[in-house]
Amino acid sequence: MALKPEGRFVSKISIVTGASQGIGEVIAKRLAEEGATVVLVDIQEDKLKAVDQDIAQAGGKALNFKADVSQLAEAQRVCEAVLAEFGRIDHLINNAGITRDALLMRLKEEEWDAVLAVNLKGVFNFSKAAIRAMINQRYGRIVNISSVVGLMGNVGQTNYAASKAGVIGFTKALAREVAQRGITVNCVAPGYIQTAMTERLPEEIKKAFLELIPMKRFGLPEDVAAAVIFLLSDEASYITGQVINVNGGMYM
Ligand code: NAP
User: Fold this and answer.
1) Ligand 1 centroid vs 99 CA: distance in angstroms?
2) pTM
3) How many whole angstroms from 242 Cα to the centroid of ligand 1?
4) Residues forming a β-bridge with 213
């Protein structure tokens, strides 16, 4: 990563969950390049520290918190610490997510609960912990990472699809609640993106996905990060309650 001398987010405080790898890591680094102070949140402590170091070595500003987004108290702990140190929270990117795939017939209750707890309740937890500060400062940008699966469904992912569709409903409702307070709330819905999450899928599933993508290639975390950065920027100040699809045309 290379720091931009005239970054768009100088003096902004940005929280990114699931920031230790994949899409979250790239979003965090793009934010740091643009001058933001990036608050990295994840359950993977070692990887989190490595991302923090990368950003610091490039001359950027970051701090990291090992925290579980599924726990409201953890979200509150992170947001309170950020507010104590910086007095504001400008950006919240709810990116942490997990899959526990199985056909409904075989899906265990714990797999349903785990996915809903991280992917949907995690978004509630961090949004709730950050929203008061955003309202008080009359400024905020929340970007929630949903999924193409939340829009079109997918075999073996009833839990994941429900969580990601839930994120879209949550986004639209919160966008309406805070629209008059200078706060925008939007979703980015990635298609198939090359990360650890998709790496572990069987080859035949990957092939089947490729068939569905008009562009005939998988996306990169950078493709998703570009849409997130746009939604955080001043250029997107009149955009709220929207879902930006980044999926190579897989769902239109
Ligand atoms: P990833 O590589 O698995 O990264 C997600 C990160 O979040 C991991 O470090 C993960 O740790 C962490 N995490 C999991 N549970 C957490 C928790 N309770 N609290 C804090 N951090 C937690 O996934 P990705 O592919 O970058 O995906 C990022 C987001 O994009 C997710 O919301 C995902 O659903 C969404 N998305 C991805 C794709 C895709 O094709 N990759 C497509 C559509 C949407 P562990 O590794 O320990 O779980």
Assistant:
1) 8
2) 0.98
3) 21
4) none
